[in-house]
Fold each of these.
Amino acid sequence: MQLPVNLATLAQACHPRSLPLPLDRWLQSSFDLLLLASAMREEGYLPAALSLWAVENPMLAPVDRLQQKADAGAEVVLTQPPLLWERTAAWAEEAAARRVSDHVKVGWGQAGQAIVCAGE
């Protein structure tokens, strides 16, 4: 059985702490969801052309999290808007130096839009 593409949109931005307790005990991490979606796509439960997206905050998270998401199957990672430019630039430089952006497209969030700037 193949699921409709719109059902494959995984809402990763919903933080467990924002949900009523005890739901946070049953929620999977974004890494788990990416691995699951990758496996479902490989097994034919999701369309092969489905692109797996994730989100990241370069102002708070280390580049290791971006690498983990790429390793888990993310093909596109949309970031928070670069409000702290120096921190965001350092994050992007580290991602480029570690060649993480060679394997995943990174888009910068900007007023409801994404501008893909790496890995194109």
Amino acid sequence: MTAPVRFNHRAAFLMRAQAVYGTAETLSATADACNPFTGDGEPAAPDPYGYVFDGAIGRGAAQVLPTRRIAPNGRFREFQFQALVKGRGSAYSASVFPPNEIHRPLLAAGYEATFSATPSARIIYTPIAPDTQGTVLTVEQYAQGAIFPARDVVCNFSYEAQGTGVPIFTFPMRGVAHVLCSDASFPSITLDAPTVNPPAAVLVVSSLGAFTGHILRNVSFDRNRAIETARYGQNVAGVHAGFVPSGYNPTMTIEIERPARSAYDAEAIREAASVASISYQVNSTGQFNRFTHVLPNAQLVSVTPGNDGPIPTVTLVYEGKASSPTANDAESLTFD
């Protein structure tokens, strides 16, 4: 018996924004490395390839089983990248952003990044304008002794902060698999801000409109960005030409201990279709290692009573809305 020829011990991701749509970037292990969150166990296996046409051509003339397939086409990748939320730990500028694993996927999730020096150095992520493509990435995933490249990668964005652990950003990604996977050595990567620890969900500041007196238990968010629609063409090299994002519906789910209704009457707020600014900030005292997410025009759309043993709770689902039918201000994320 021989030793295993490869192992599932570690994983690496390289990502870079593409200068030209449809043209993959040449990635660098020192400039483009992103630190993935893999949990306490082994990394998840790479996701299988998908195809626009899988090669099936139906049954044979005298058969009751499918006939032999022809070659598939339109190869693409659908995979997930997760990262622990943290800042750079040093001052931001017009050219200095949060670590790669935060900044670059956020751009591909349909945000644009703006530096502001007021009231202190910060990077603010806001939705890209409608009718714009936004950033696409070239991504290389190293896993199980192989490399899995993809270009024109776009993604959705969500996060969760359960209990008092570290919040986790999740980016479900889709892109064109322009090159088939191949054996590759694990790269010698250089990570952004490797000595900066991600903050736990303590020292949290949360507001539900004017109400700030709640006991916050769990928070999750999903941008609900649709990235299902594929571009393909019979006269396109490789058939697949990427995915076209469409609508999104930023939704924050918040579990709190049930307060007195004289302070916060969730059911009445839901029925009134009230609009309020809600926010969630992690690490309120940590400069350059905190983030704040604001839905300035949020509406409460669901109220679910619950309990943790003897403790009454309520789960609130807020949707972020624009301030007017022509505005583009449903949410913002700030790293400072």
Amino acid sequence: MTDNIEELRIQRDEAGSRGDWDSAAELSERIIDLELKQQSYTTESSYPAYGGGYIQPIIVPFSSTPQWVQGTWKEEHPGTVPSVHVYRVLVARISYPYSDYTVRTIVAWDGASGVAMKSWVPSYDTLISSTAEEKALYFGGAVPLHAGRAIAVMDKQPTYGRIDLYMFPDDYLPPTTIAPTLTERQTKILATTRTYTSSYRRVMFGRYRVAQQEFDELREMGLLDRRGAITITGRNVVGDAAPWYEYEL
């Protein structure tokens, strides 16, 4: 089988047009694997890349997202503000909805035409005529990205909203953040703040004897706000570090 991605795309489209979905899916996986091997983009050093093709997302304010993202969310879920996770990647690895109660809207943006196309779970007739990438887009999977194109996966639950925004690396410049050097204890304080509810955080901080001065130092770094909640900068700096656990005591 050829390693030429453009030739593989032509073969995939031909397979889909004749209804050979198994071949189309196999070719799509081949294309994705080749594009992942070519992927040389990572986030800034403050947001390191991890093995296995996983890129740690950059958390950004909803107000800083593109207008097509804000407009769609406000239309679908007025009066709510979601968390936004930006992935700078060549292949969008879309996860399944978190639960059966999730309302999912997917928006594919084409920068060349300036058109945002909303997609929901299609009818059966629509599904069988979809490409392998479209199936992945609806139900979770991998979708190749190209310059000028982006995908916003918008999930809304009764008490929580989240947008996973997948963008071609050159199309999004992450905010310049100089991450301060943190001690292991400071990292644990931030990770515990990020992970637990305020009432349980107080229990954990009491057990680990966290002093007010330690909170003040993190606040001065801009990693906690005046209420003691973790800031967006704090979330990006701490990444997916593990919090304190009760069994560690």
Amino acid sequence: MATPYLDKEEFYASQYYFPEPRGTNEYSLHNADKLWGYLINTYHWTLPAVCAFYGAIQYECDFNQRLVEGQKPAPIRGSSTSGTGLVQWTPPDNLLGFANTYGSSWEYAGTQMAMLEAERKAKYNSKPPRQWYATKGGQYRNKYDEYFDDNTVYETQDEFCSNASLDNGNTLVSLCAQVVLFYTRSGTWYDPKRWERNANAAEFYYKRYSGQEPPTPPPIPPTPPSKKGGLKVWQMIRYH
């Protein structure tokens, strides 16, 4: 199996899974630490929000933004078995379309962070469309309400990323449940054991980063161009 390489954004990448142990190998931790700095300082996520998403990302791709489900060489449009990138967008069409619109490549963390930010602010019929479904009475919300306090739900992805906290009755398990139920909606979204598994990973990162200041990232990147031909996302984000 090929050794992971540093891409031009200085994130480790590979077509293949990073070596074990998942989440704590040198490649995963390198990427997780870089992402943490950007999500906190550039995109202004809370630490609990970062860690809850990290619980999902660890098991989706082990922080390998280049990974395509099944270790395929490239994502396949329209495929339900071609999850791609940090959160394994499935099918990958929205990610590929987003990357194409902004003149970037799907395989870079900069593109995928910009995609997460676009989804965070998206409306139902936006491009990319919103992905957070916490509608009261909906199947995902009903499953959450069976186990947790309805009052701890974040109704939108922006509310979650901006405000997720452990001081309002939420726990890492309930926050991880919201990411799984309302955002990733994986094939086992309804299984509480998956939320607990993700929370164990989230706790690792919460302990790793609590009490620390994230590394100062470059200035906030400008708004991406609205049409092809402008700067690429990776050109707008200057990495150390």
